[in-house]
Amino acid sequence: MFISKRMKKIKETINKKNILKVDVAIKKLKKLSTVKFVETMDVSVNLSINPKKSDQNVRGSTILPNGIGKLIKVAVFAQGTHIEQAKLAGADFFGLNSLIQKIKMEGANFDIAIASPESMEKLTSIGSILGPKGLMPNPKSGTITEDIFNAVKNAKKGQIRFRNDKNGIIHAAIGKINFSTNSIKENLFKFLESIKKLKPRQSKGKFFKKITLSSSMGGSIVIDQSSLKEIID
């Protein structure tokens, strides 16, 4: 298999057996980023849960203090006074019947969908479009709400939603590689704090089994959890 010079350098620099402190890991990933676009900084958190049991699944949302480095496009499905809330909060798309027709014709060109409770019945007609993209509003993620204004504001600030996969791992983007080391660390700490608050009662002992940082086009580094002690213990 052909391996580019860039990937060869990454493989030579990052030893998968090494476990690095969080500051060192972030700086190394930043140094190794040589692509012509700004990479995303990702985190994978392996939890000591049984994902086959619904009462042990971890799902939630949080607002990262330094955002995610991306302009978030928000669509609001609502009518009446909720439309005014959406406008004031800076929603990119808003409406109900007309917005649904637009999506049927053009697709879903936004990142987050928020809906008022009474509008949900009509959204079933575009469920096949929103569903596969993970855009269908859901009360558990706070995207079905009467408080449209704050829901849009939070989404625009860089609110991220997360849930564990079938292996008990949570994956998320926590910023861009060109963020300062401190900004990435602050976002990581906030993300881990949010997960910790959702620890299921059934999960005993060490909740965070493994935490890995990576860039979208680079290698991955396992984080020494002693450098996260104040957050995860």
General description of the model:
By secondary structure, this protein is an alpha/beta fold. It folds into 2 domains: 7-68 and 159-232, Ribosomal protein L1/L10, rRNA-binding domain (Ribulose 1,5 Bisphosphate Carboxylase/Oxygenase), CATH 3.30.190.20; 74-157, Ribosomal protein L1/L10, domain II (Rossmann fold). Helices cover 33% and strands 22% of the residues. The protein has helices at residues 5-13, 22-31, 81-89, 97-106, 120-123, 127-130, 148-157, 181-196, 229-232, and strands spanning 19-20, 40-47, 59-63, 74-77, 93-95, 112-115, 159-163, 169-176, 208-215, 220-223. The strands form 3 sheets. A 5-stranded mixed β-sheet has the order 1-10-9-2-8. Strands 5-4-6 form a 3-stranded parallel β-sheet, sandwiched between helices. The chain has a two-stranded antiparallel sheet with strand order 3-7. Strand 9 and strand 10 form a beta hairpin. Helix 3 packs parallel to helix 7 (148-157). It is globular and about 55 Å long. The model has no long low-confidence stretch (mean pLDDT 89).
